Amino acid sequence: MNEERIKISQDLLSDGFGLIAASGYINNEGGQAIADAANKLMDQGCKTLLIDLDGTRIINSIGVSILLEILEKLMDEKGQLAFCNLTPTISKTFEIMGLVQYASVYSDREAAQSAIAGDASV
């Protein structure tokens, strides 16, 4: 099986709000790359993190467990985690694994950023 290697970009969009764009296979290597990017953003003061999975078609159980670790770390800091651009398969996986109970899911990046900006102004 020829899985796509993960490609990651990260950006601190505004004070306390970070974005990670990931495409490719989220396994132990891909999950760790996302965790490394999340940790860098959190070290810069990020408490709200949006992970855009546009271009990601598959995630394994190790990848999900790493995302859960990121969620736990953010929750410990009274932060929040959100995802966008999920395939139906990844969305179902997140539901089964309980990620959607504690993290928000949006259809696309614009919807996520708009909702998160609205939460910040409350």
From TrEMBL:
Write down the Pfam families for this protein, in alphabetical order.
Answer: STAS
STAS domain location: 15-116
Q: Which GO terms describe its molecular function?
A: anti-sigma factor antagonist activity
**Top-level taxon in the UniProt lineage:** Bacteria
Return the protein name.
Answer: STAS domain-containing protein
The source organism is: Candidatus Sulfomarinibacter kjeldsenii
What are the leading ranks of the lineage?
Bacteria, Pseudomonadati, Acidobacteriota, Thermoanaerobaculia, Thermoanaerobaculales
